[in-house]
């Protein structure tokens, strides 16, 4: 595998991070540098760890998980996206919007966006010419950077449109990512 193929894989894996981060930036009332960094760090960390797990886990782990990993990602994104969508459609002034920075939510989103990276890691284990440490570093870096870009892009959008519309858009994006993950695995 050459360098440019690895770049394309890294960008492809980072796109889910970008979309979820964009939703986070649009949905959150206040985005701080610390929160942006934390979100990007978690997404980058999990995008880097999953290929490593796939690399070391080998065929048995990936074969067993491939039967249900897409369902896990789909349901996590459906629940979080659905909650955002409902809160955007039915705003309640007493009810605050979903806090994507809540540790459990951030953990579930990190896992959901990085499940595809597990299969990538497994495929890397079959290629003898792949430097796994360089590969996971590049994947983590791209995911980290795309997450930061996504948060600030979503924040800019929120300045242009009403916050409830941004939350509706964020919910739709998360649900769409879940559907994409589910259908790509079911049709493969």
Structure description:
The chain has 188 residues and is mostly helical. The chain has one domain (15-24, 32-187). The chain contains 6 helices and no strands. Helix 2 (33-65) packs across helix 5 (132-160), helix 3 (69-89) runs antiparallel to helix 4 and helix 3 (69-89) runs antiparallel to helix 6 (163-187). The radius of gyration is 17 Å and the shape is globular. The model has no long low-confidence stretch (mean pLDDT 81).
Features:
mainly alpha; 188 residues
CA-to-CA gap between the ends?
22 Å
Q: Percent of residues in helical segments?
A: over 70%
Q: Roughly what fraction of the amino acids lie in strands?
A: under 5%
Q: Give the beta-strand count.
A: 0
- Tell me the radius of gyration: 17 Å
The helix count comes to: 6
- Which secondary-structure class do the elements indicate? mainly alpha
Mean pLDDT: 81
Q: How many domains make up the 3D coordinates?
A: 1
Instruction: Let me know the largest β-sheet.
Output: none
* Rough outline: globular
- Helix-strand sequence: HHHHHH
Unreliable stretches, pLDDT < 50, 5 or more residues? none
